[in-house]
Amino acid sequence: MTRYLAARVAGLILVLVGVASISFVLAHAAPGDPAELFFERANGRPPSEAQVVALRRQMGLDRPLLVQYVSWVRGAAGGDLGRSWATGQSVSRALVGSMAPTLALAIAALILALSIGGPLGIVAAYRPGSLVDRVSRGLAVTGTSIPSFVIGYLLIFVFAVKLRLLPVFGSGSPQHVILPAVTLALGTSGMYARLVRTTVMTALDEEYVRAAFARGLTPRAVLIRHALPNALMPLLTVSAISLSHLLGGAVIVEWVFSRPGLGRLAIDAIHARDYPLVQGVVLLGGAIFASINLIVDLAYFRIDPRVRLRTGRDAS
Fold it and tell me: Closest Cα to residue 246, out of 231, 263, 232?
C-alpha cells in the first residue's frame, strides 16, 4: 500500500508541475501588454511609455521569463500564488472564496445525476426495451445533444418565468442551486443510466451470478450482493471524471445564472489579463482533477482485490 500510494502521489506532483508550466506559458503567450491594458482600464486613456515601464516593473514583468517562472513556481510550492493585478487581493484567498460555490454546485449536480441515472440504469438492465429503458436512452441523447446554456435558458423560461417557482440569478439559498444543478445534471444522468445499464447487464451474464440464481437466491439478493458491487466499479471512475467535467461545465452555468464561483472569477481574470489569477485558477483546476483521480485509485485499491493482487505482483 505504501509503495502504491507513493507512486500515485509522485504522479500527482508531476501532473501539477506540468499544469503549472502550461498555464504560465499560455498566460504569457497571450497577445498584448498587460501593463498597458491595465492602465487603460483603470484610467480610461492610453499610458505614456514611462508609465508602462513603471507598471511593468511593479508587476514584475520586466524580469526575464524564466526568472518569473521560477519565482512563481517557488511561491506556489509554498502556497503563495501571488496577488491579483486587478484587485490587489491574494490569489489564494480569492480562489478559496470562489471555490465553495462552484464545488457545491458540481457536487449537487453529481448527486442529482447519480440519483436519476443509477436507478434508471438498473431498471433498464432488468427490463430491456421497456418504457424505462426508452426514457433512459432519450435522456442520454437529449442531455448530450443540447448545450448546457440552452438547457439553462429553457429551465429559466419554464420554472422561473412561467411558473415562478424558483429564483434565477445569484445565490444565498438552496433554491438558487436547483436550476443550475439540474442544468448540469441532465446530460450526465443520461450517460450514467446507459453506463449502469450496460455494466449491470454484463454482470448478470457472468457465471457467478448464474450460480447465485441456481442456489435459490432471490433476484434482489443477487443484484445487491453479486451484480451491483462489480457492475458499479466503472461508475466510480466515471463519476470522479464527471465531477471534474462538471466543475468545468460550471463556468458556463455560473455565467448563465449569474452565480459567484471559479467560473466567473476565471472569466473576469482572462478579460483583465490578470496573469497571477489566471494561473491560480488553472493550477487549482489541475490540482482538483489530479486529487480526484488519486482518491479513485486509492478507492479501487481498497475495494477491488484484483488491484491489490496486481500491485503486489508488480512490487515483487
Answer: 263
Burial label, 60 (beta-carbon count in 10 A; 0-12, 13-18, 19+): middle
pLDDT at 315 over 60: no
d(CA 274, CA 303): 44
Pick the CATH number of 100-271 from 2.60.40.10, 3.30.465.10, 3.30.750.24, 1.10.3720.10: 1.10.3720.10
Mean pLDDT of 10-39: 82
pLDDT at position 15, please?
86
- Band (pLDDT 50/70/90 cuts) for residue 101 is confident
pLDDT at 43: 73
Structure confidence at residue 316 as a pLDDT band (50, 70, 90): very low
Grid cell at residue 148: 448546457
Task: Please answer whether residues 257 and 266 qualify as being in contact, where contact means their C-beta atoms are separated by less than 8 angstroms.
Answer: no
Give yes or no for a contact between 280 and 81, defined as CB atoms under 8 angstroms apart.
yes
Paired residues of 90 in beta bridges: 83
Segments making up each domain of the chain, as ranges: 1-86+273-316, 100-271
- Give the mean pLDDT of 58-71: 87
Residue 154 to residue 175: CA distance in whole angstroms: 17
- Between CA 40 and CA 120 the distance in angstroms is 55
Which cell numbers in the block locate residue 314?
508488480
Rounded to 5 degrees, what angle do the CA atoms 19, 284, 185 make? 110
Residue 34 confidence (pLDDT) = 80
Q: Which positions ≥6 away from 178 have C-beta within 8 Å?
A: 166
